[in-house]
Amino acid sequence: MVSALLISVGAVSGISAFLALLMVIADATIANYGDVKITINGDKELDVKGGKPLLGILMEEGIFIPSACGGRGSCGLCKVRVTEGAGQFLPTELPWLTEEDKAANIRLSCQLKVKNDMFIEIPEELFNVRQFRSRVSSLRDLTHDIKELRLELIDPAEIEMLPGQFVQLQTPEYELTDEPVYRAYSVSSDTKDRRRIELEIRLVPNGICTTYVHNYLKEGDEIIFNGPYGDFHLRETEREIIFIAGGSGMAPIKSILLNMADEGSTRRARYFFGARSTRDLFLVDKMRELEEKLPNFTFIPALSNPEPDDNWKGATGLITDVVADHLESGDNVEAYLCGSPGMIDACIKVLTDKGVPEELIYYDKFG
Amino acid sequence: MSPETAYPVAIFFAAIFTNNILLSNYLGMCSFLSVSREIKTSIGLGVAVIFVMASTSMLNWVVYYKILIPLELEYLRFIIFIIVIAAFVQLVEMIIERVSEVLYTALGIFLPLITVNCAILGVSLFMVIREYSFIESFTFGLGSGIGWFLAIMAMAGIRQKLKRARIPRGLEGAGISLIITGMMALAFMGFSGMLPIG
Asked: SS3 of A81, please?
């Protein structure tokens, strides 16, 4: 009885061990593609070990390609242009590639294994993009539908970014999604503080990420984000700045203003903020504080539908009308807009009518 | 032909037609249903199945008669066969990926799917139950693979036509596929009696 037990255990272990050994040998010989070189954008060269998917190899080298599914080939986000050394398109890539993608040699980096020297092209801004683990240090209501989310970085411990840039927040699997989902949010905090970031997130009905932040996330929870992205940042000129925002479009502009205050900027700046009524208005005290610190800055909140109880004495009307009333001429002005596509398109029209050159109107549109 | 050579040949044809593993035993249904949408992918998976069935039936014959029988461990055949199949498929995938890019794009991604294809394990188990010799096991494995290939090709062809057919909503997808598989099985029953073995 005991010997039968031993023999059976021994036989199963023996056969398994033999096969495992075979696999290890195969992995070291057949699947060993040696040292290969990846050339990025024609100048940066990486010496790496071949045999693994491009996405993982780049991540080990500190280059983070945005990907939502973590390399399972089910999100189709980790596209990279491979000009040489990629070989044929794999059946696992094809569902995610359009005809244009294929013509431009766009590949899915999580499926494409690096087997020989490769030439790839990725946008320069991705070199600075990292994935961060962070902890929710505070989560509070700014209005009835906008929450302010403060995140303390864990790993890496610091983020270097420009005021006005955004990050992508990861929503883990929960009731509304069965795989991680990423959504972009502008950072609203002072980017001089590299150890934490602050986001302003408006609840979108049935929005996967916003619902998660508003109804599921708690202080102390860990959350993953990656970034920074975007080229919405203040240009160093002498022109007067016109900021226009609505709702959570407040975020990047607040970050830019905080940085201007740090630097003791004396540039003329006006900030038009549109809301429906006072219940949609937030951080007014903070803006008044910034008016004290910045000698040439004025905050102009405008309500489109003030309630009788609001006792509103400030500007009234659509944000476009308020801007049109206040702005005498578009000469010597540059504008920074952040808000819904409809608001931005309407504001661009008002500004160009006033004579602001279109190339000096910078905006961050979100849907 | 002497009976010794004739019998393996009969087994080969029986495995394709009269005892088609998919249509008479309903084995290997999951990949059959999910991959038979297009002829091209069906060919890839079918060829991979032929290759793996023929190879693993031989491998498992050796493992069973040379290791398990002498050690009186026949009852472990399920677990051992699965391990052997999984390791073999993994190895073949690695080799194909290294050797031929064309073959890898055509077959490579189907190989991992096959590890869990029950028809493969079924072939090894039938081989034991029916007490086939080494040669018979090989022809049985090869024949079953070709039979499976035929069945999935036929299904893929029918499903191409079905794309333009008006199917009651409740039967779309797996429903109509299973009904068609049943009809195909009935059609294949016409072959029975053609060969002297069951």
From this structure: strand
